[in-house]
Amino acid sequence: MASLLFQPLKPYKPIFPGTPKTLTQTLVCKADTPTTSNNSTGKPRSRNPRKRSSYGTSRRSVLKKSFAQEQVNFTSPVPDDPVVAIVGGGVSGLVCALNLERRGVRSTVFDTGMHGLGGRMGTRIIDPQPLVFDHAAQFFTVSDARFRELVDSWLEKGVVREWEGLIGELEVGGNFSPIPSSPTRYIGVNGMRPVADSILSRSHLVNVVRPCWISRLDPFNGMWHLSENGKPQGGFDAIVIAHNGKCANRLLSSSGLPLLMKQMKSLELSSIWALLAAFEKPLIVPARENFTPFEGAFVKGVDSISWMANNTNKLRSQSDGPQCWTFFSTASYGKQNKVPQENIPNVTAEKVKRDMLEGVEVAIGLSRGSLEQPIYTRVQLWGAALPTNTPNIPCIFDPYGRAGICGDWLLGSSVEAAALSGMALADHIADYFESGGARPDEFAIGLHDAFQPIKGHDIGQFPGLKSKEQASETETCSTYA
């Protein structure tokens, strides 16, 4: 075993300006031997981490102890061939891994997905028909040149295409208004999940482990050691947290990264219900003058519905088959009807399904009970759906703990924001490695930034997309300019 583990330093002196006074000392993690990889395949080095006692399970106990935990400070040199662990295989984590590879840095992505990578880039395929639903991210737009380059590569691979279908705003009673002008909208050719699965399809320096639920991060002997319910998952020279919510909070609560924990705990997330419903025939909308069937609509004035989209038309599936629709609730409805998403009571699932289908009737102007009953339904609660506040920074990095955070919430709540955050953190970590870690103060970023509310739709942000009111305001301003 190592002769030098965690050595208390002199009486506490803040490492970072503004470090919470609850920190009483700093931990120094020193390596006894040079840190070298055990192979050249991109797999992590494995060492046995020192076990530490776990914190209590109550939220109050976790909060109290997580903010009082001692700051990890790695002083061992950065190895010549460092390896990064990325916890979370959503867009931000995958793009982070992709850009680390472009900088010559190896990584391992750990993801909990049973059906595939992507996080909220989720697509459900129900056999044997099959029924296909995008049940999380519905579409995305592009406003940044760096994201444009990535999207162009997806277009070249044939995994995304422009969505030319009609979308707009649907008010109570079936009053539909097309969005006047909008940027190019993109969707996955076969759904959103294949887009995420394609991001690392040609990588050589990235190892993917799934399904895997990382439950502990232990600093030991100059490295981070990850484990899943007591099962070691290897040692790494830096870590990236690319997911959020209660699981990320629990993971950071005893890791020795109080500043990252503080920022993560400042994040507020909405809860949104998704209802997947397949109908034998197209939804019948009461006859209206000049009405054109839409493929997607932001719903106004209905508490149980904020968005509805026809996946069958959107994905150009067989038109003579069942019509697959995705419905999302409002954030307020999600909050009012929130339950543990891992174990949704049947009575709650039935209530939510009933409320949302009634909301569809109200939105499209049908009398109560006249909506055709779907031949298939599934409800899902996104308990940590979307951020409602943001520090508006590209990424967070603690150079002393060699740990960072990326995710859409750092810049907003869009696919573009997630990708840009992953890019930024990858470049920041690569620059830190190239510096040898000798000047950590220069690489601290995002550890104290304040949060601001996020403005956008309940289902996220779409840079460049304007609502009817926004378009009207723009036109008015142009007229009087």
Automatic annotation (TrEMBL):
Composition skew (Basic residues), residue ranges: 44-53
UniProt lists compositionally biased (Polar residues) regions at: 31-42
- In this chain, the stretch annotated as Disordered covers 31-60
> Pfam families, per this entry?
NAD_binding_8
UniProt protein name = FAD/NAD(P)-binding oxidoreductase family protein
Q: What is the originating organism of this protein?
A: Acorus calamus
Q: What does UniProt list as this organism's lineage?
A: Eukaryota, Viridiplantae, Streptophyta, Embryophyta, Tracheophyta
